[in-house]
């Protein structure tokens, strides 16, 4: 004896697409796709403003969990972000080695 068919939300008409869903939207009502240079802050407009990640490289940092906990606590106590503290540390390291003349933490 086989099991009865299982009920699904799409089978009940909930969250389902109409059978003719491709033909339901006319080309005239479709939104126009914008180019990157037409989007405010898009890729075609150079490096993003400070405080954003666009244009910046990402590298992972491995450290003890206690270190990350301490960094988060210091960030909270000084009303800043862990990211700002990481950049501050990178700036100090570069200054120590003579590679950050005239730069501040926002330039790193």
Q: What is the compact description of this entry?
A:
The protein has 108 residues and is mostly helical.
Polypeptide structure, described:
- With 108 residues, this protein is an all-alpha fold.
- The chain has helices at 65-77, 82-96.
- The chain is elongated.
Strand content: under 5%
What kind of assembly state do the chains in view correspond to? single chain
Strand count, sense and barrel status of the largest sheet are: none
User: Helical residue percent?
Assistant: 25-40%
Q: What is the radius of gyration?
A: 26 Å
Please, what is the average pLDDT?
A: 75
| Unreliable runs | none
Globular, elongated, flat, extended or rod-shaped: what is the shape? elongated
Query: How far apart lie the N and C ends?
Result: 69 Å
